[in-house]
Request: fold
Amino acid sequence: MRVLICIGIVAWMTLGTTNAPAREEAKEMGGTKLMAGFARVDITPAVGCEIPGGFAKNISKGVHDPLYAEAAVFMNGKTSLAIVGADIIMAPNDVVAEARQQAEKQTGIPGRNILIAASHTHNGGPIVDCLGSESDPAYCALVAQRIAEAIVHAQANAVEARVGVGVGHEDTVGFNRRFKMKDGSVRTHPGKMNPDIVEPAGPIDPDVGIISVVDAQGGMLGCIVNYTLHGTVIGGSELSADWIGYLRKTIRGVLGDENLGVVFLNGACGDVTQVDNRSPRPSEFGEAWAKRVGMTVGAEALKVIARLEYADKTPLAAATEILDLPIRDLAGSDEELVARETPAAGLGSSHNDVYLKEARLVREMKVKSPTVPVEVQALRIGSAILVTNPTEYFCALGLSIKKGSPMKPVFVVELANGYAGYCPTAEAFQGGGYEIRTARSSYLAPGTGERIAERSIGLLGKL
Reply:
């Protein structure tokens, strides 16, 4: 239980005792006024834990910056919602289920109305079994408890509030990492200035989505920020929130409030990176670049916040649907599958020993069940629509949801309410590459991404 001892900034004794006043006040308002609150809890594990996200074990050697779970709660006496952004690489199904159960028990907020999303930092704690990484059950249990704790405190902090919604534009720090090559193949990270690059194989999403919340006097309580970019900048063996930590620092620093709530939700960044493979820049990794990315996105978020108008009425709504999605065809032996999927070059062209182990594990999954349950969720906060799925969703698919939605603006949130690996477009399966290689991080069948998009748009009719 060393992890439990070494983590945390919020007293355990406050759990379950601070939510009643906010609930009672919301009831008295009869659904006519909005109550909102924010809270943050520390989820930094003990040094010496694994850092997931790579092909080999990466043992943490220090803490670059703390990891947090940040929560926002919205209530109007009729509907209550909770939104959590956590500094974890994935949000495993069992962690989400446990956090929802605890939060619902202590706050009364229905579990189905709770959104729990991973920031996708690749310098987080041992939350998932994947490739070269193993999860720590004690840490998983703690993260679930701390997420529930954040929701409890956010509800306790709720006051009468108004909401402003806006969308900014930032297209200089995110790049698609998959490229069409002269030989007709598609490669992930083919190398800086590779002369065989023809063009990107997918788009980026420059939207900086903002839900800003102020109290009755106009004082800012916090904001929700939605942007589409992998958390792969810091690197190394220190625990870190990655560029997302600098985003939060930028917003809090400019607004002069270290206690300001800043909930980050990542967009459909399955194929979006901070690395510009067509630029001669020598490196887009490390602390300096993480600051650059976080400050750049944070500055755009602040521009949006500065110009917002706040609505007097803020409708709240939630809808969910569970899809049974098929595991892909695993024809041939494990060795044949690995050989067939190995790219000629680029990310994913090596580590076949890891992929052989992963292929066996996915085959075992399919023997137990040929399908996996995948939750699609839609939340409405005023004019903003949040649409979630638990995959590393390709950017083109996220954009298709935004284009097809009858309601605007739509903020797509990936790696939310569970984890189901990469979800490429049907076209991407034809091109191959790292994201397509069969593993516990990529096992859904072709076409599932388009089905998620279709059902996500359909779900909006229930809001």
In short: Residues 1-30 have pLDDT under 50 and may be disordered.
